[in-house]
Amino acid sequence: MPVNQENKHPLRRDGLSQTQRFLDALDPSYSKIDDLSFKDWLQFAYEFAKEISFFPDQAPFVADGDWTVFFNRN
């Protein structure tokens, strides 16, 4: 056996570790689900509140308007 030959392990290779192979597309901040702002979400909630009836917690349990009053205070 030659004296100057390095004795390398046959399965040891130069390469990347698993953390170095991380795909950018897997990062949650890579793409936005939607581009709605906070104001847009409030407008959506206000419009949706028009569709939900308000029922009081005391008898008679009859629909008494909708939930838009909740948003008018803010």
Explain how this protein is built.
Helix content is 23%, strand content 0%. With 74 residues, it is mostly helical. The longest helix is centred in the middle third of the chain and has 12 residues, at 38-49. The N and C termini lie far apart (84 Å).
Indicate the topology.
Blueprint (H helix, E strand, L loop, with lengths): L37 H12 L18 H5 L2
Please identify the structural class as seen in this structure.
mainly alpha
Structure annotation, total helices: 2
Rg of Cα set = 31 Å
Number of strands: 0
Overall pLDDT metric: 81
Helix content: 10-25%
Assign an overall shape: rod-shaped
Main sheet attributes: strand count, strand direction, barrel closure: none
Strand content: under 5%
Low-confidence sequence ranges:
none
Q: How far from one another are the termini?
A: 84 Å
Can you describe this structure in just a few lines?
Helices cover 23% and strands 0% of the residues. The protein has 74 residues and is mainly α. It is rod-shaped and about 95 Å long.
Which key features would you list for this structure?
74 residues; mainly alpha; 23% helix
